[in-house]
Amino acid sequence: ATTRTPLMAGNWKMNLDHHQATHLVQKLAWTLKDARHEFTSVEVAVLPPFTDLRSVQTLVDADKLELVYGAQDVSAHTSGAYTGEISPVFLAKLGVTYVVVGHSERRQYHHEDDAVVAAKAGSAFGQGLVPIVCVGEGLDVRRAGEHVAYTLTQLDGSLAGLTEDQASKVVVAYEPVWAIGTGEVATPEDAQEVCAAIRTRLGELFSPSVAAAVRVLYGGSVKSGNVASIMAQPDVDGALVGGASLDVDEFAAIVRYQS
Ligand code: PEP
Questions:
Q1: Which residues of the chain carry a pLDDT beneath 50?
Q2: Catalytic residue at 175?
Q3: Degrees (nearest 5) of the Cα angle 76, 81, 87?
Q4: pLDDT at residue number 3
Q5: Which H/E stretch holds residue 216?
Q6: Cβ(55)–Cβ(63) under 8 Å?
Q7: Residue 28 structural domain
Q8: 1 lies in some domain
Q9: pLDDT recorded at residue 246
Q10: pLDDT for res 1
Q11: Which atom, in ligand 1's list, is nearest to the CA of 105?
C-alpha cells in the first residue's frame, strides 16, 4: 500500500434521513479537521443514498470540505426508458467521485451478475466517475476453500471491457459476504491473501502498472479496533465500511487508523 493513497469509504446503505445525513457529513468534516487529518494521505469518501447527494454536494462546496462523496449504484445506461434508474450523467452533475457497483446486496437482492456489474463500471467511467467494483465469496465458497478462484472469476467478469486506462483508475473492494454486517471480520491474513490475488490478476488482465496502481479495499465488519491490522497488509489499500460509517467518531477513528 506504500505508493497508493489509502481510501476509506463509508457505505451508508439505505440509512439516515436527510437531516441525519447532512449532520453526519458536517460532524465528520469537523472531527477530521480538529484532528488535522491530511486528506491527501488518506482519502475519505462518504456514499449516501441518491436522495442525499444534492445536500452533500451543497455542504461540500459551501464549506470547501476535502472529503469526497459517491453513490451506491448507477445505471448501465445514460438515458431512456429505465424507470427508477439513476444515470451516471445525473451523478456527474452532482459532483460525485465514486460509484459502488456490484455490492453483494445488489448481486443478491437484485440479481446483478458480473456482466451487469461490468456494464455499470463502464457506464460510470463514461461520465468520468470512478467505480468501486465489489467482489467476494459467500460462506459456502469460503468453507469449500474456493474463495480465491471464485473471487477472481467475479473480478474477470466484472472488469470485462474496461480499457487499460480505465482499469488503472478503478477501485476494487474485496468484501467476503460472510463478513458483511455480521461482525465477523476476515483475519488480516485472509484479507491479504485475496487482495494480493486480485492484484496479481489485474497484472495478468491488464498490465503490471495497472496492478501497481489500483487500490484494493477490504470490506466486511471493519471497525476502529481491527482496521490497523488489516491496513498493515501490503495489498490492502483501504476499507469499504458499512455499519461503522454511520457513527462519526468510529468512522473518524477508522480514517485515522495511523494515529
Ligand atoms: C458493506 O456493506 O460494504 C460493508 C462492508 O458493511 P459492514 O462494514 O457493515 O460489514
A1: none
A2: yes
A3: 35
A4: 84
A5: strand 215-219
A6: no
A7: 7-255
A8: no
A9: 98
A10: 52
A11: 2
For ligand 1, is residue 243 a contact (CB within 6 Å)?
yes
- 171-216 pLDDT tens trace: 999 999 999 988 888 899 999 999 999 999 999 999 999 999 999 9
Secondary structure (3-state) at 241: strand
Choosing from 43, 103, 137, 250, which is the catalytic residue? 103
In a domain, 226, yes or no: yes
Q: Is residue 23 part of a domain?
A: yes
pLDDT at 183: 87
Give the total number of structural domains in the chain: 1
Of 183, 258, 245, nearest to 25 by C-alpha is 245
Query: How far is residue 5's CA from residue 221's CA, in Å, rounded to a whole number?
Result: 22
Distance 245 CA to ligand 1 centre (A): 9
First to last CA, the chain: 17
CB 230 less than 6 A from any atom of ligand 1? no
Beta bridge partners of 130: 98
Q: What is the CATH number of the domain that holds 185?
A: 3.20.20.70
Indicate the DSSP class of residue 11. Answer: E
In a domain, 198, yes or no: yes
Specify the pLDDT at position 2: 62
Say what angle helices 248-255 and 18-34 make with each other, to 10 degrees: 40
Q: Which atom of ligand 1 is nearest to the CA of 103?
A: 3
